[in-house]
């Protein structure tokens, strides 16, 4: 084994000498620097593989005697060392080591694996880290291609997908062990916000087998399953007037003193089946939010605001899971969208009259005059003789406002400095879900989609490095009953 180690170090020294010669010859030939850089990097990868091989060989072959006591059992050494594949960022190694077991072809204890801290699979923790950083941002095929271009490491798309699903199994326990943010860094208001975003799903196997069966009228080629996107953050109060909000909406003029969300935590849940039991994604998202709110305000000392659109399913979850003192606020952007629908029942699109219609009624809503706006729209419905689609649209707008009066007390919310828009979760629907899950041609299984959403949320929340460290330590403890060094 000592000879093998020395041979590996000798080859490494030869490679290092070749790199020195490369630099000298490149300087003499006045080569362009980027060409030298690429050739140098390729040589450094080869050098790294030889040095890593030397390190492994220096650790021996794991032979600790003919027998060993492990977990209160007497285990016998294998007759010959068994080879194990290890794919590093430098290249692939075959690690030969003795295994100990009670019966042939079993592997109950492998001393060298434990000493080296080898992962459960073939791929190194570093390679897994780097590849999955790419996978959470781009398609699996693109990520594998990028890794191959950079390192020459060839990982199949299937292996990358399996790696994502295995890695995602540690996300829940990682999140559950995170301490709440320091109190001194928190804003005075806690905010929870929720929305849904569709994920294009693979057709069931039986439909794919049918092949050319014609779809029914109105049936889409690929159905989507909703991911419930959730966000929790704290923020300082920001009192403002109705005119401030109208001015911001009308001219997109944000006040420079607007406070920023603090310790924003985003995630997404999907309905799935595990061990024969179904778990509702929306309920899971609200349970997670309820737990985090309790951790971040354990003594009920902070007001809790929940901002959503008017979807009844979300309102039911708010009442069921969030604390009774939660103040539910209807997202003002959804309110504004319906004002525009009402305006186009009477005025042409893009007209000054339509803009004036919206500005006037938005200001009234923000001043707490919801009843006045509803009454005015009802009178216009009766007096203008609307028919057909316009009549249906205006009645829908009136019903929407009437059904959500209790969540439209904007004069009170603005005076207290509460947020009234769901921009945080709307943005999360885009950059957490849409930007990764809805690229051209993408279709997902439930397990695959959940894995990427969990990992991508970890990345988006700037927790990736801590998560990777946690995953390595917990896997090492599971494999070898010891904390990784």
What would the keywords be for this entry?
single chain, alpha+beta, 485 residues, 3-stranded antiparallel sheet, elongated, 12 strands, 5-stranded mixed sheet
Proportion of strand residues: 5-15%
Structural class: alpha+beta
The major sheet is characterized as:
5 strands, mixed
- Secondary structure tally: strands: 12
Description of the structure:
The protein is an alpha+beta fold and 485 residues long. Helices cover 52% and strands 15% of the residues. It is built from 19 helices and 12 strands. It has helices spanning 2-28, 33-58, 111-116, 125-135, 140-151, 157-168, 171-176, 205-210, 242-251, 281-296, 312-321, 332-343, 352-366, 370-383, 388-403, 410-416, 423-437, 446-460, 464-480, and strands spanning 67-70, 73-77, 82-87, 92-97, 100-101, 189-200, 224-235, 262-270, 272-274, 277-279, 304-308, 327-330. A hairpin with a 2-residue loop joins strand 9 and strand 10. The longest helix is centred in the first third of the chain and has 27 residues, at 2-28. The relative contact order is 0.11. The mean pLDDT is 91.
Summarize the structure.
Among the domains are: 1-58; 181-431, no CATH class. Helices cover 52% and strands 15% of the residues. It is built from 19 helices and twelve strands.
Task: Give the SSE layout.
Blueprint: H1 2-28, H2 33-58, E1 67-70, E2 73-77, E3 82-87, E4 92-97, E5 100-101, H3 111-116, H4 125-135, H5 140-151, H6 157-168, H7 171-176, E6 189-200, H8 205-210, E7 224-235, H9 242-251, E8 262-270, E9 272-274, E10 277-279, H10 281-296, E11 304-308, H11 312-321, E12 327-330, H12 332-343, H13 352-366, H14 370-383, H15 388-403, H16 410-416, H17 423-437, H18 446-460, H19 464-480
Parallel strand pairs: 6-11, 11-12
Antiparallel strand pairs: 1-2, 2-5, 3-4, 6-7, 7-8, 9-10
């Amino acid at each position: 084994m000592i000879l093998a180690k020395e041979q590996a170090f000798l080859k490494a020294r030869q490679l290092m000498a070749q790199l020195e010669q490369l630099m000298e010859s490149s300087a003499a030939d006045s080569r362009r620097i980027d060409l030298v850089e690429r050739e140098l990097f390729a040589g450094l990868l080869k050098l790294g593989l030889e040095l890593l091989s030397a390190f492994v060989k220096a650790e021996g072959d794991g032979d600790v005697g003919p027998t060993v006591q492990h977990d209160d059992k007497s285990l016998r050494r294998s007759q010959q060392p068994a080879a194990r594949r290890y794919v590093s960022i430098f290249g692939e190694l075959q690690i030969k080591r003795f295994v100990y077991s009670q019966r042939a072809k079993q592997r109950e204890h492998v001393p060298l694996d434990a000493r080296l801290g080898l992962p459960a699979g073939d791929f190194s923790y570093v390679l897994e880290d780097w590849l999955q950083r790419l996978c959470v941002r781009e398609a699996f095929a693109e990520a594998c291609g990028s890794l191959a271009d950079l390192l020459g490491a060839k990982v199949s798309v299937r292996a990358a997908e399996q790696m994502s699903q295995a890695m995602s199994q540690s996300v829940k326990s990682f999140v559950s062990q995170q301490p709440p943010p320091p109190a001194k860094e928190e804003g005075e208001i806690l905010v929870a916000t929720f929305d849904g975003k569709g994920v294009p799903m693979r057709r069931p196997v039986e439909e794919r087998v049918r092949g050319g069966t014609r779809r029914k009228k109105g049936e889409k080629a690929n159905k989507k399953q909703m991911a419930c996107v959730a966000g929790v953050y704290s923020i300082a109060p920001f009192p403002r007037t109705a005119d401030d909000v109208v001015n911001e909406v009308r001219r997109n003029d944000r006040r420079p003193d607007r406070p920023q969300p603090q310790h924003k935590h985003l995630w997404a849940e999907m309905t799935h089946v595990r061990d024969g039991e179904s778990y509702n994604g929306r309920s899971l998202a609200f349970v997670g939010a309820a737990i985090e709110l309790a951790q971040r305000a354990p003594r009920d000392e902070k007001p809790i605001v929940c901002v959503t659109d008017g979807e009844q399913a979300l309102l039911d979850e708010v009442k069921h899971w969030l604390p009774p003192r939660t103040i539910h606020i209807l997202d003002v952007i959804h309110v504004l969208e319906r004002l525009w629908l009402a305006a186009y029942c009477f005025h042409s699109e893009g007209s000054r009259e339509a803009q004036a219609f919206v500005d006037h009624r938005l200001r009234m809503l923000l001043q707490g005059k919801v009843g006045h706006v509803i009454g005015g729209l009802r009178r216009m419905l009766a007096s203008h003789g609307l028919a057909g689609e316009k009549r249906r649209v205006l009645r829908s707008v009136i019903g929407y406002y009437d059904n959500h009066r209790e969540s439209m007390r904007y004069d009170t919310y603005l005076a207290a400095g509460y947020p009234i828009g769901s921009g945080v979760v709307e943005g999360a629907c885009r950059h957490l879900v849409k930007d990764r899950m809805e690229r051209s041609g993408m279709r997902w299984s439930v397990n695959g989609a959940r894995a990427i959403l969990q990992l991508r949320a970890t990345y988006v929340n700037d927790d990736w490095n801590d998560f990777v460290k946690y995953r390595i330590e917990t896997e090492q403890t599971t494999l070898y009953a010891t904390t990784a060094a």
